[in-house]
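Retro notes
What went well: the complex prediction finally ran end to end.
Inputs used:
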Amino acid sequence: MPESTVILNNTGIERALTRIAHEIAERNEVSAEIVLVGIQRGGVSVAERLAKNLSQIWNAPVPCGSLDVNMHRDDLGHRAAPTVHPTLIPFDVTGKTVVLVDDVLFSGRTIRAAMDALTDFGRPKRIQLAVLVDRGHRELPIKADYVGKNQPTSPKEKVRVIVGEPNRADEIILERP
Amino acid sequence: MSWNRKHLLDIESLSADEIMTVLDTAKAFKAVGERAIKKVPALRGKTVVNLFIEPSTRTRISFELAQQRLSADIVNFTADASSLKKGETLKDTARNLEALNADFIVIRHSAAGAAHFLARTLNTHVINAGDGSHEHPTQALLDAFTIRERKGKIAGLNVTILGDILFSRVARSNIWALTKLGAKVTLCGPSTLVPRTFEAMGCRVTHDVEEAIRDADIIHLLRIQHERQRKTMFPSIGEYTTLFGLNKARLAKTKPDSLIMHPGPVNRGVEIDSEIADCDRSLILEQVTNGIAVRMAVMFLVNGGKGPQEITGG
């Protein structure tokens, strides 16, 4: 029977997202240069929430897109073909500061694929990374600029992020096998 | 979403869920074709052999573009330039290609079952690009994709396939795909080319063209496959056009939102009037565009290996 612990509840997630939004605003003074891109699937709803928080801080809308990285993964052919979700980036990323947003940072391979995928859309001025949970075990030299919670884990554990699901409270759960 | 197949050989053995997986995946690949950079690295380092033993232009070009947009390396092999002309068997040709470490073989052949034969013989992924009068699975998938994109659904639609059904692999694959997805399929054409035996595949057969297209949401036209007919199946081309050709007068008696499809090559003035082929109800060129996305999706899906589909965290 898997054992599960809530590592961040509704309030904790809200607080973390508010803090990240303020950190993004502090690090990036020119608000017009910031765009958010959520990584499918888990990063999209997190990015939308961050965009909302940021637009309240800046009193201006913050563009927010979604990116599917499955066509750029390095393990295709080693596993069943992944489900590909829509990529919607309805703005030009060239010259912008793109904040990539994901729910969980683990091996770093998704972020590597995301950076590759993003450059097919233009040449961002810089790319930053925001994640709700950093669970360690990096396999690539990748580091997040904004972290909601650092959570030490064992590789066998699972981190489940529930954000923005209908009729469900937001929470992050650590599952031990 | 489900896909665990190493090959795409036919539509007959696919489930409705598998067909929908291809269509959903193709949607994402269509978006790639609309970007400034129309290429993704999904098949980087993979070698694809396009083994076209029977002549083809549009299917081969569509596959080639799909492969290039997936970053695969391509070898093209056509009937007249190959050693098959020098007496080599298909099996030997294929084994030679495998010895070159090809990862995929896309085969078009005049013999039904050629793709299945290769899939049994070789360790590579095999994709059927048309085998005799048997099946042309990627054509049926791109047709289904086009219908779903324009009509928003497939289940419950009336689809009429009009023309040479008997010799058409496009018709067979389309009948399988459309009936599995819940469309009501009507077949129409000269009785010699549309025998009643097709009713066993779950469709309606009629030889009255006006009745066949009256309630159709989709009118799917097929070319007369002269190359597969060993004897004359109807008196003359002129008579075929008079009795079964789609013209303005006939189109006027269909639903105002009925759409016209044709897998090409179009014989203008035979199965379809020239002006109808170019009208805004014709999806002929959309089919061509969608063909690339669907073939990208098929190659992406069959490339998948064993193991879990969903990735948790990254």
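What we learned: Chain A touches chain B at residues 68, 71-72, 76-87, 102-111, 113, 116-117, 120-121, 135, 158-160 (CB under 8 Å).
What to try next: split runs per interface for comparison.
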